[in-house]
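--- STAGE predict ---
source: upstream dedup step, 1 unique chain passed
mode: sequence only
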Amino acid sequence: MPHMNLSRLVFLLAFAAQAQEYTVLKPARVFDGEATREGWAVRVRGNRIESAGPAANIDAANAKVIDLPGATLLPGLVEAHSHILLHAYNETPWNDQVAKEGIALRAARAVNHLRSTLMAGFTTIRDLGTEGAGYADVELKQAVNQGIVPGPRVLVSTRAIVATGSYAPKGFALEWRVPQGAEEADGVDSLIRTVRDQIGHGADWIKLYADYRWGAGPAARPTFSLEELKLAVETAKSAGIPVSVHASTPEGMRRAVLAGVETIEHGDAGTPEVFKLMAERHVALCPTLAAGDATAQYAGWRKGESPEPQSLQRKRASFKAALDAGVTILSGSDVGVFPHGDNAREIEMMVAYGMAPTDALKSATSIAGRVLHMDIGTVKQGMFADLIAVDGDPTKDIAALRKVKFVMKAGTVYR
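--- STAGE serialize ---
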């Protein structure tokens, strides 16, 4: 017994010493989530930022000093629309991934996806649906949190929720009951139960599909009624869980906004009127520009050589309308459609589509922290020490985000 007590004492002392460890980061400049600060340094204690400001004012005593000459230090980037259990559609079509790849195989791939995402400087992801892989996202999050695999902070939404008959895989004999890529629910009893069940399985966000390609013709049409969406939002809010909605049609978007959701994904056919409503109700847009760009190229479009397809022209127009209306833009790419680790593609495309580089960076840092209700996204005292450094200055050349040389998550250096 005395030996056990001594061992425990040694462990506690070592743990206390580790908790008191300090790190001082000295880059050329800091983008703090709002603006660029030349000659700043940052002091980290444990998993939080203790102080940030002019280097001369940052105490480096008893600290490990990491010099990052020529680099910009900024908050770890946020990927707000990820599918960690999907891989690029030009490798395997979505339908085949969901219908033919088992959960263990998909989870094994996802471990690599998590690592690639973190090493690319994205220290937080919001995963918006396992696409047929059940609750594997919750267990992958547990694996990251327990230190089994390296990865970003993970917010999960488990199976996502669709109206009956409005999702996929499809194309099978009609008498077969094919498992879908999301959970079907309708009406009062079914929706309440499904929302509660997904929260009970660990969902940090509830993901709903307000419209989809169903019914007559190939176009997307609204699925859930306004009353159904309101019911789902009210049920989730009782547990303190926010709601995200896939919506690309004006009517699907309108219903989602009026129902009280916090973010809308895609918004492809958004109109000035619906974007005005989003701005008034403080609903953020995840534009997912990179996904459409990728799928257009998979379909044969030669970027930079041939004219943009109409779908991308519409996307440009809707994104501009959202910017003009003052909608809060949350950076989210729908990664999984294209390779994980290439997440910066979304931020680059927002700039290419007319957003100022500083605003695009905010959408992946400070705005993301606020919209996701997390202590991330700004370089200031008390925030999680999720910090990355890139060569160059991304506020002047957004491509600098590709030159990641340092990654810290919760005070731990991964790169």
